Amino acid sequence: MIQDPKRYTITAALPYTNGPIHIGHLAGVYVPSDIYARFLRLQNRDVAFICGSDEHGVAISMKAKKEGITPQEVIDKYHAIIKKSFEDFGISFDNYSRTSAKIHHDTASEFFRTLYEKGDFIEEVTEQLYDAKANQFLADRFVIGTCPKCGNDEAYGDQCERCGSSLNATDLINPKSTITGETPILKSTKHWFLPLDRYDAFLREWILVGHKNDWKPNVFGQVKSWLDDGLKPRAVTRDLDWGIPVPVEGAEGKVLYVWFDAPIGYISSTKEWAQREGKDWEPYWKSDDTKLVHFIGKDNIVFHCVIFPAMLKAEGSYILPDNVPANEFLNLEGNKLSTSKNWAVWLHEYLEDFPDKQDVLRYALTSNAPETKDNDFTWKDFQARNNNELVAIFGNFINRVVVLTNKYYDGIVPQPNDFSEIDEATLAELKAYPAVIASSVERYRFREALGELMNVARLGNKYLADEEPWKVIKDNPERVHTQMYVALQIAGALSVLAEPFLPFTAQKLARILKTENNFSWDTISEDSDLIPARRKIGEAELLFAKIEDEEIQKQIDKLEATKTANKAENKKAEPQKDLIQYEDFAKMDLRVGTILEAEKMPKANKLLVLKIDTGIDVRTIVSGIAESFSPEEIIGKKVTVLANLAPRNLRGVESQGMILMTTNAEGKLVFINPDAEAGNGETIN
């Protein structure tokens, strides 16, 4: 670990521009990285917080094919959506770039040429999967098959998303092209490989020895597993028509593989920022007194802890990451988040449905962050955390302090009198919190840090509840001067300590308390007069509003609609039954009928007793549809009746036939209706 770094380079995983940002991305990468960057800035540290859109690779090509547009149109569309979502949500990047920018193409090409000229690549002709029908080589994500390690039959050619194993497309069992559905063939092609096995000893020493005690167990464990499994050369080029052209002779029609190109995007984005700000970019990537931290999700651990460090080591002039505090996955209402299945809470939609509630989502995601294991986001938990914690604890304390200050002193901070032991103990406890919260943040325990922030608000609530200034004011108004002064110091501290976690709330609170730009993080521990006497504060404003059940139900209903749509899209027809002869079919007497009467069968939840006009008679048919239809709604409905089915006694009622039904994608019963013009008794043949 770097002690007392001169500057910080903080990177957040480059989001793919094949779709918008959802809460899984936020919880895994962007909220924790933003908390860390904001915290460091409050300590007056030199910070470069870097990100950008990842705009190359097969995911973009797949999206373009699916939407019938060009890859450029795909990346332009989603880059704009993603960038705006981050801005609206308050993610405070110093630079948000894109890998389609010229500065990135130049940087990535130069990086490749440096390694190429040093002889760090292996050039090989290998057999790759080829779709003869589509007449193209298949990049990893265009191949799907059975994972050889866990048996998942929907594994991609680069990674199994069930077990997390990194794969090559040729490893898959029963591979299929996602373009045509055909079984691909093997065909020879030339590519350049980074020999990861050469860096085995370096990686073992750097990570397994050097970072054994400070990297998160989930990160350390995955890296160790990879190293123990044996590193192999990995291709850095691909046969693809979308990406950065491989900048050497004999590489026509090939591009840099996206995993090689994308992490270099951190460097090119830093260059872009430095040019704009008139800075030198190199110290942020090449100076030993710089602390480099990568924030990623667990599906990117191998790329940031094995492959990218090997690339940096091969190049020779770059520093290595001090830490890679990857989070686990966030699930949604018990199911895995899925962009392709639309099982997600999209950030741009959240901001439409919950305007000005960015901090509520930040709070819910941080307090339930998947820091050490996969966690589950539910709308009910989101509501409870807002109503029971933000409103009832944080908001309640601030509201009481501001209301009472305006009520007793017209908003002017009172001059305190003598401090009691409780006052001094409370202020001493307050001064300890910045160090406590900082310790958690510096160890990337953001959930723990947020809990300590809320403890500051609890400290304020307890102080007011114990001191009861609204009662003391009647008999000892001089004592209330001190009580309100102490409470205001806690409120002032919250306006700063909350900023990394709840930036919009902190800004609003600072405006109310008139503390904007007044002090930094360390001031809280050093200064006993955070909000000085005789300062006039503003009127009370609600920091948080209660979220009602109706708002939450709307979100749950939206997800249920998605689940239904997915079932409909993925529903597979049952296989055909054994063949029959025409004579078998001809034995069935299918007739058009009309339901004349319907009533529930006593003591039977599923059964309705129907009277049906079949054209040849009016007969009784007992049908198990009571859970799907009320008697009233089916009277008069045309139905298809199997008229010559042998009668059957059901709960003492003779049923003389059967009506034809099916189930839709939602599992709901649906009548097989004859055309409205068909009369009762007409035969179906």
Structure description:
Its cofactor is Zn(2+). This is Methionine--tRNA ligase. Keywords: Aminoacyl-tRNA synthetase, ATP-binding, Cytoplasm, Ligase, Metal-binding, Nucleotide-binding, Protein biosynthesis, RNA-binding, tRNA-binding, Zinc. GO terms for molecular function: methionine-tRNA ligase activity. By secondary structure, the protein is α+β, with helices and mostly antiparallel strands. It contains 21 helices and 26 strands. The strands form 8 sheets. Strands 17, 18, 19, 20, 23 and 26 form a 6-stranded antiparallel beta sheet that branches. A 4-stranded parallel beta sheet has the order 3-2-1-13, with helices on both faces. Helix 15 (about 470-475) runs antiparallel to helix 16 (about 475-495).
Question: What is the multimeric organization of the chains shown?
Answer: single chain
Approximate strand percentage: 15-25%
Main beta sheet strand tally, sense and closure: 6 strands, antiparallel
Topology, number of strands: 26
Q: What number is the mean pLDDT?
A: 92
The Rg value, from CA coordinates, equals 33 Å
Helix count, DSSP H or I runs of 4 or more residues: 21
Shape: flat
Subunit structure: Homodimer.
Keywords: Aminoacyl-tRNA synthetase, ATP-binding, Cytoplasm, Ligase, Metal-binding, Nucleotide-binding, Protein biosynthesis, RNA-binding, tRNA-binding, Zinc
Function: Is required not only for elongation of protein synthesis but also for the initiation of all mRNA translation through initiator tRNA(fMet) aminoacylation.
Cofactor: Zn(2+)
